[in-house]
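Priority: medium. Attachment 1 of 2:
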């Protein structure tokens, strides 16, 4: 069994009032976050299993339950490493290009994700404030050469070594590829909140699959994600 139990968030189940049982809802959310599927694709897969559900319901499940699953998993998450790689990638929201700030550590753990309309000092500051709330402070931070980073790092991590050399950030730039592949079938998002939810949910899935949570530690690697989501559902 796992050495960590996800923390229950509320005394009453978050699934109360939903037509479908928790295992169906969590299955739909897991499929959507894990694979390059549209909401209609998830609808079709569930119908093949004899579960008649509309794609709009799948959308609502993802938007409601993804942040809850992320929060429930937080106590079981490994502390980040001490070397961080930070970068922004682009995502189209309501026909406009916006930004997803992401950071990973030297072990490939996604530390945090922040969706932002702008790529500026305020956004960089918000991102690092969020990322540092996860615990361990880095001794080295690698970024691109955006002008905002030196100022933010001087404010929040004055003791950390800042690296911004050419090609130094290849690790996180390569890591964007998995998220980009997930976003591709969507052909753009309607709301910035959706970018935040899906970016955070994809990070949760990626981190569980890479073993950065004390969840489903008894399961074989290929079954770890499904077992972890089952454990997390019990906390909702």
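Attachment 2 of 2:
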């Amino acid at each position: 069994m796992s050495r960590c139990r996800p923390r229950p968030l509320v005394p009453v189940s978050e699934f109360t009032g939903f037509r479908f049982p928790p295992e169906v809802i969590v299955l739909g959310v897991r499929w959507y976050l894990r694979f390059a599927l549209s909401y209609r694709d998830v609808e079709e897969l569930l119908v093949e299993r004899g579960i008649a559900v509309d794609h709009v319901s799948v959308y609502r499940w993802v938007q409601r339950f993804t942040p809850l699953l992320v929060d429930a998993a937080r106590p079981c998450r490994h502390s980040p490493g001490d070397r961080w790689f930070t970068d922004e990638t682009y995502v189209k929201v309501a026909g406009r290009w916006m930004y997803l700030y992401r950071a990973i550590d030297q072990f490939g753990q996604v530390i945090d994700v922040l969706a932002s309309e702008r790529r500026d000092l305020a956004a960089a500051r918000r991102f690092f404030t969020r990322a540092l709330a996860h615990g361990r402070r880095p001794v080295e931070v690698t970024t691109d050469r955006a002008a905002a980073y030196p100022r933010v790092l001087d404010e929040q991590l004055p003791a950390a070594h800042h690296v911004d050399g050419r090609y130094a950030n290849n690790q996180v730039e390569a890591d964007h590829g998995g998220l980009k592949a997930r976003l591709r079938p969507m052909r753009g998002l309607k709301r910035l909140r959706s970018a935040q939810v899906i970016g955070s949910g994809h990070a949760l899935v990626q981190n569980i699959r890479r073993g950065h949570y004390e969840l489903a530690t008894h399961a074989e690697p290929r079954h770890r994600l499904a077992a972890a989501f089952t454990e997390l559902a019990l906390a909702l």
